[in-house]
Design goal:
The chain is of the alpha/beta class. It contains 16 helices and 27 strands. It is globular and about 80 Å long.
Length: 545
């Protein structure tokens, strides 16, 4: 950025690059709509409102609305099943210009090689990466890599990261664990992960310098955490949809403490409804004042992370803009990045040699999965619309599914199983190498024969397989760490469509929700009961059952 050129353009001494005329401008700094022009030079706004500057190009917007582009405050790109450059092609047309991404999914599989892959896969999207803080998520996990305090310090000193990614090991924080604390001292930008954490443990968590949380499931929880100093990220993903509940906590007095995020969202939902654009549109539909919704979706997250010059339309701010027919993301007509109208272009696939072939398992036989019903052993009850699971004790196995988690990084042959309530699969099974956050294989079905067949069909690259009556009826290869594909996003959308059709042949569950919730049954840091390759885990007590 040449400040001298910006000053000259703002003063009219040289023509600016672009003048957007006759716009209704969403002034998020003044919380009002102003009518006028927007002057852009070298990707930066140099004038707005009642300004008439010489320009090399002028476009009459004819009273269309213009807002800053959106920022996703917390996202795991890996959950979209496409690599960063393809993810950008999905979200930019929906108005997202900036994402704060935590690549801990691929880090759990490939370590620093996975982080390098994500960072080096360039795109027009402004992508700021957080350094994964919990690889693995807990000391009880079986991950493909370990990033301890020493390794995190080395990675932080590379200068490639904006801050420290979500600190999921809240028991380690409360206990003052030495390695955990060493990570917390690296930076003052630290993302949180504290579902249902309360009392002195929550206050200790905040004392550690953690600044936000995206795991609130009630308005009451959000308000308590705001009062203790945390910013709240309202999450609307595929498995966890908290927006409708959490916007009840938003007032004109605390709206500057909220941002929108998606956390984990599947490719089909991103393509159909968008990410942050969907959050803003849904909030408006539920009664939120539009300028408030845009402030939460555009301005707050850049402020939280100290990203000066992002999130507003004002002199010196980046010309990342959304053009709309109405002040609603559902009416987007154009998106500008750095002052240039965005046009989708095919992007060459990067080298994936260091992040492929990551599935190492011994063949699974039907008899390896040995479910035995016991009235004293809890069943995992998957609660719809949330990642929270609860223990339950049904009288029989009627309506229950069998779920197994299988270690896939070192071919140990280790697996465990459990019964699960809340799904409906008949004469079939679904297996995937997506199993947060260690990403071992998670498989679920109503019989062990189909479960074994689904696991064995994953191959060395991994992905998702659907089996019915012993036959693989749908599959999607995810050759990048068993989490993503390097193919064009339209190719993966088509593959995901075939998966959806396959799942519909064995289950009445909504396919994307089934896959997403299935992938979280092994995340040992979301209450209350989960499964790993080592057995059932009580998250509240932080110990195996």
């Amino acid at each position: 950025m040449n400040k001298g050129n910006l000053i000259d353009a703002a003063m009219g001494r040289i023509p600016c690059d672009l003048l957007l005329k006759n716009a209704k401008i969403a002034d998020l700094l003044g919380h009002r709509i102003i009518t006028g022009n927007i002057a852009i030079h070298e990707g930066t706004v140099v004038g707005c409102g009642d300004v008439e500057l010489p320009a090399r190009e002028s476009i009459d917007l004819k009273q269309k609305f213009v807002s800053p582009a959106f920022t996703d405050a917390h996202v795991h790109i890996e959950s979209s099943m496409v690599i960063p450059s393809q993810y950008a092609r999905l979200v930019i047309p929906k108005g997202v210009a900036t994402v704060i991404a935590d690549p801990h999914e691929i880090a759990n599989v490939c370590g620093s090689s996975g982080l390098d892959f994500m960072i080096e896969d360039k795109s027009p999207l402004r992508t700021y990466y957080m350094l994964p803080s919990c690889v693995p998520a807990t000391p009880f996990d079986s991950s493909g890599a370990v990033l301890d305090g020493t390794e995190c310090k080395k990675l932080w000193e590379s200068g490639k990261f904006l801050g420290l990614g979500e600190m999921m090991n809240y028991p380690g924080v409360a206990a003052g664990d030495k390695d955990t604390v060493s990570k917390l001292t690296l930076t003052d930008k630290i993302d949180g992960h504290a579902p249902m954490l309360r009392g002195k443990e929550l206050q200790a968590y905040v004392c550690a310098g953690i600044s936000n949380d995206h795991e609130c499931s009630s308005a009451e929880e959000a308000l308590e955490k705001i009062s203790l100093g945390l910013n709240i990220y309202i999450r609307e993903g595929t498995g966890a949809k908290n927006l409708e509940e959490l916007i009840k906590a938003v007032t004109p007095y605390n709206m500057h403490r909220f941002a929108f995020c998606t956390d984990d969202k599947h490719i089909d939902e991103i393509y159909e409804e968008g990410t942050i654009s969907h959050c803003v549109a849904k909030a408006i539909k539920l009664g939120m004042e539009p300028l408030t919704a845009f402030t939460i979706g555009c301005l707050n997250a850049p402020r939280f992370y100290g990203l000066k010059g992002l999130g507003a339309i004002a002199p010196g701010y980046a010309a990342d803009l959304i053009i709309m027919e109405e002040l609603n993301p559902e009416t987007i007509t154009d998106v500008y990045l750095r002052g240039v109208r965005y046009e989708d272009k095919a992007i060459p696939a990067p080298d994936i040699s260091k992040v492929s072939g990551t599935v190492h398992i011994k063949p699974i036989a039907t008899e390896d999965i040995k479910p035995v019903f016991n009235h004293d052993t809890p069943v995992i009850d998957a609660c719809p619309g949330t990642l929270i699971t609860k223990p339950c004790y049904p009288e029989s196995t009627e309506g229950l599914m069998i779920c197994a988690n299988i270690e896939r990084h070192k071919a140990t042959g280790r697996l465990s199983w459990a019964y699960v309530k809340g799904f409906s699969i008949k004469n079939g099974a679904v297996a995937q190498t997506i199993g947060h956050d260690s990403h071992n294989i998670t498989v679920m079905g109503d019989n062990t024969q189909d479960m074994a067949a689904a696991v064995n069909a994953l191959g060395t690259d991994g992905g998702i397989t659907v089996v019915k009556d012993g036959e693989v009826i749908a599959s999607l290869t995810l050759e990048v760490a068993g989490l993503m594909s390097s193919a064009d996003y339209m190719t993966i959308l088509e593959g995901n469509r075939r998966l959806t059709e396959g799942i519909a042949k064995i289950s009445s569950d909504e396919p994307s929700s089934l896959l997403m919730i299935l992938s979280f049954l092994s995340l040992l840091v979301i209450p209350e009961i989960k499964i790993s390759d080592k057995g059932l885990f009580d998250v509240n007590k932080f110990e195996f059952i």
